[in-house]
Queue: 4 jobs
Job 1
Amino acid sequence: MKANRFLLVILTSFFILAISCKKDKTTTSSSTASKPTPYTIVIPKFFPTALNIPADNPMTVEGIKLGRYLYYDGRICGKKDTLMSCSTCHIQAHAFMNGVGYAYGTTGVKTPHAMLPHINLVFNSNGYLWTGEVTPNNPFYHTPGTYGGNIEDVVWIAMTDKPEFASDTTKSKEAIQAISIYPPMFKAAFGSDVVTFRNISKAIAQFIRTLISSNSKFDQYVRGETQLSNSELNGYNDFETETADCFHCHGTILLTTNNFYNNAKDSIFTDPYDRYSYTHNTSDKGAYVAPTLRNIAYRGPYMHDGRFATLDDVINFYSSGLVWSPYVSPMMYHISTHGAQMTASQKADLKAFLLTLSDSTFITNPDFSKPSDLP
């Protein structure tokens, strides 16, 4: 009798243990299945290896997918009578610029500067916007409601700024929460189907970090896959020397240093939103970021205020239109002669080289385009 009772206890314990293990296994599998899929950015050959990805917003397949939808969804502004999205002003065909310079927000207010393109921003750790003020070095971005001074903050600024969405984060998240496709996507990307604006900004920032352009004719030349024409090579040589004097601000594989310069456009400075407005350093008066020259042919008009309509206008300015002021960057080597004084053939060669920076695969990549099932 005692032996039978002992056997019963052993069998019962074994059964409970088996059930418990099964539950633990099920729980673990469910937990694993709910985690988003890590996404690794493939760094193009010869590009910098340092990526500006905040520790609290790692790249995931699900986050990027969600960000792409939100980037193109005009309902994100949270206004029933108005549709506006990131893609309203950052158009893929124009290398994620708008192709007209300034933009006008939902209330008709003009942006203080022309648009900047969304190209290779994951390689920029010097600060965002024309002034570079969106940076972890700016104490403002350590206050409640901000996101650490990164692309996530640029999304927040766009939503609340009068010349852009002129909305607020509550309206935005409520609008997205009410659209049936989004709660499951937020669940997959961030573990909760409750939409928050912090996660909206994180998802859009993840998508923007995937917008990498690295397949222009110039890139193919650098990789040894093709040759440049004689005119393009001459232009490249002039670009990389003081003949055209472009390399000080644009002479890296990114075609920008991501630094800030007064490039001798003016002698009187009235713009309240130049680099000086952020740093309060007098040497930064009239200074702005040097945007990448990648895909420059798709992106006119040019400069922070869109003053030059064509590439020819820009080349002529750097050849003979420089204006001296006490704040001109030391990088403007030819300021004493008002420019590089290029010949007509040198200008033509330089333009030929600049056209090799066009990456047609970037402006047609379906992974960067509007999702087909968005209205």
Note: The radius of gyration is 26 Å.
Job 2
Amino acid sequence: MTQSRRFESLDGWLAWLQTLHPKQIDMSLDRVRGVMAALGIADPPYRVVTVAGTNGKGSCVAMLEGIYRAAGYAVGAFTSPHLIAFNERIRFDGSDLEDEALIELFSLIDAARGELTLSYFEASAVAAMLHFARAGADVGLLEVGMGGRLDAVNAVDADAALIVSIDLDHMDWLGPDRDIIGREKAGIVRRGRPVIVADRDPPDGLFDEIGRRGGNASTIGVDFSAEVQGDQFSYRQADQGSRLFPCPAFGGRIQLDNAAAAIAVVDAMQEALPVADEAIVTGLSTAKLRGRFQRVMVDGVEWIFDVAHNPASAALFCESLAGLRPVLRTVAVFGAMSDKDLDAVIEPFVSVVDTWLVGGIDSDRGAKPEDLASQLQRLGARDVSVYPDVVAAARAVRAVPTDRVLVFGSFYTVGPAMNVVGLY
């Protein structure tokens, strides 16, 4: 049966979805659940792993995707935001969905929703879960967009939950401190099912809420751990022997904790989705994630792309940089959202960066480059130049003598800059 279409292009659908619901962010599950019920996917026919956290969600999804694919499973992955193309948000068996598949999904959702309206993110999440069901996924990996309890992906019951980290971000929506934010993230937990906690300093509120919801928690540093051994790491669960795995192929030191968390999820799901250690080795070795401490050489200059956009991720990015060989001159291409704690994001880099090229980003929440420049100068940054957008800033790098270029501050900074240097 051919589904009638409101639009014939993906761009048309995406532009319309930006306006369908009166609020860009509307923390509620009722409308999503209503549409999913109408589509017949309220109870997904595949195993679900839901991943929440302030930082590290995308890394964990990438590693789990690599592991489960290496084990022979059909794997769907939903992540956000995207760097360049919306298609990146929904992957199946390692490939981004094509425009035609997305157009069909949005047409089906439009026909099923009746009077219900969905936000752009909610429609994206429903499209992912619908595609996984129709394509015969064995497991769906769902990355929370914001928080957990009221995020669209929490409309389905997770077979396992992973809470990667808890830091101060989206505070206007989630709460003023880590304790309250931790409770929100624990909203993805389901009674009697495993929840893996990969935060090494978890707030009490997180465990209070996990206990209230009846989840079976395993915590890094208590129930499982990881230690570097050369280019491998030793993974150990409580009361069990250690197992050796390769260090992840991307990112810095923090990825070791993310890898350990991914293995803990796989171990917790062994009965439903058996995985041999050989598949874990292959999955960790082949997992890829764009824009997370991604290093490339362009015309003899090292470029490092990182979507670090909040204080915790910026600190980790700076820590990873400290482990690299020193260079004579470092340039930063920087753009950011105005609603972040930008002082805390910028400060670690003031002594590291010699020249700042600041540009605007393509988002209603984007900080004006002139405001960013003033903020940088107030914090003591040297040699700050302003450009209308990050594309212009990235292009201007060619005229600046440098040994290393850092591109960070937002997904909306990294994606366009990658495009400028031909990585997309």
Note: The first helix runs from residue 10 to 20.
Job 3
Amino acid sequence: MTISITIREANLKNSGIDLSRHMSFFPIDSHGGRNKDYLGKTITLIFSGINEDIQTDIDETKKVFRSARGHLRRFYEHFNYSVGDVVYITKITDRVYKISNTKPDK
């Protein structure tokens, strides 16, 4: 299963990705609170193109991956992202997700 998210200017500026419409795509226990005192269980994000992966939870108040800013910044720079481009997130297993700039083959 894959979701697609259109990138906005704020996503590029803050090296984030807006998960607000897709929170149910991720395990409910990966949703943490407003700061690191309230971490959810981690999931693994694999970033295509930069060949990096990270363990992170999701900040449920901000609807973003808590620990992925640096990875997302390098991902956006590597693929020369601009406003309106699309990020694809594919569920590999219950706790592993691939972040890509192209829609995966079925």
Note: The chain has two helices and eight strands.
Job 4
Amino acid sequence: MVDYLTHRLGITISVQLYKSGYKRANDPVINYTDQPIPNCFSIYNEGFLFEKDLREKNQLPHVKTTDTLVQLFPANTDEYSINFDMFSAIFFCLSRYEEYLPFSTDEHGRFTGQQSHAFKHHYLKVPVVDFWINYFITFLNEHTNLDLKKTTRFHIKPTIDVDSAWAYQNKSQSHRLVSIVKNLINLDWDIIKDKREVLKGKIDPYDTFEYLKNSLNDKNPIYFFLMNVKRPYDTAYYVELDAFHLLLKSIDDNSEIGIHPSYESYDNPSKIKIEKDKLEKITERQIVKSRQHFLRLNFPETYNQLILNGILEDYSMGYADQIGFRAGTSLPFRFYNVDKEEVTDLMVQPFCIMDVTLKQYHDYSIEEAMIEVKTMKNTIKESNGCLSFIWHNSSFAEFEGWAGWDKVFQEIIKD
């Protein structure tokens, strides 16, 4: 907690046991005890940070919403300078504390956004941690001799998941034949027509990499590549093909590349190393960034495995079923292992919007998705945060119902 505050505030913070009358003449002192002290800057301490055992589900923080802030762990009195346990609230969000408690998973073994504390208490779409930090900076500047500056500014971080580089191209003759037979049985005439046109020279509907390059040329995007094939979820059938190697190298010339650990890696972590090694061999560079396929994330096991495999940054922190801030922040932070009570070197970059969430989970129209994107962007601008999002190279394919969704994509990347 101290490390995080030091980083976000840009000042050195030390913790001292309280002694009556203690005060250093030149340093502001914050009282963070179970009682407010007269004539002293005091923040409510609920006791959460000092507990050794995990709480039960029914003991998770109460929430109070004021005109300016969402407050977790609110005090029952107005005698404090800050009347909620802001430090515990930040820790509760960033640590993903509630995901260490028993919960029911969805069909993919995931903790869903809909069962989160933030969703149930209506603050999931608010980067509360970022607002708390900005509030704290303003409060300190007004009540101490400090002159702190807000250390972040609004920026956009695009990330692209490549689950399937091509819809039709670079498949074997036998695979094409089986696929066409299935289409005939299902009377998928539009898909059959589309396949024939691609085989005659039309650009594959998933081959949107030139469009992405031109759209994101000043945004420093990261592309996450799936490197495993096992139906129905791992679809990278082309990993050994020269065409894929050329694609990887062309993207690597202009953008960053990360590993997209397969659906199976969630239950078989040894696959992370195998897949990462394949990607490193092709790109001839060390891969240190990662995002879990299907966002299958389990605390703390998934992050422990990523750390063991040399991953320095993870981009899985968000929900498939909901838009918003899984860890209460739009900005990167270091993963804290609650089981071991230690800060790690793994940097976590949250995302708040995914294309599939908008279209498939919420069934938004293009117009509704545009409104959602604009609202989210304005909220993040207000908090001086980062708009990180997930888009798929395949999420422009008309035959899969993505016609017109390029408008939503362009709205997201617009400054």
Note: DSSP finds 13 helices and 15 strands in the chain.
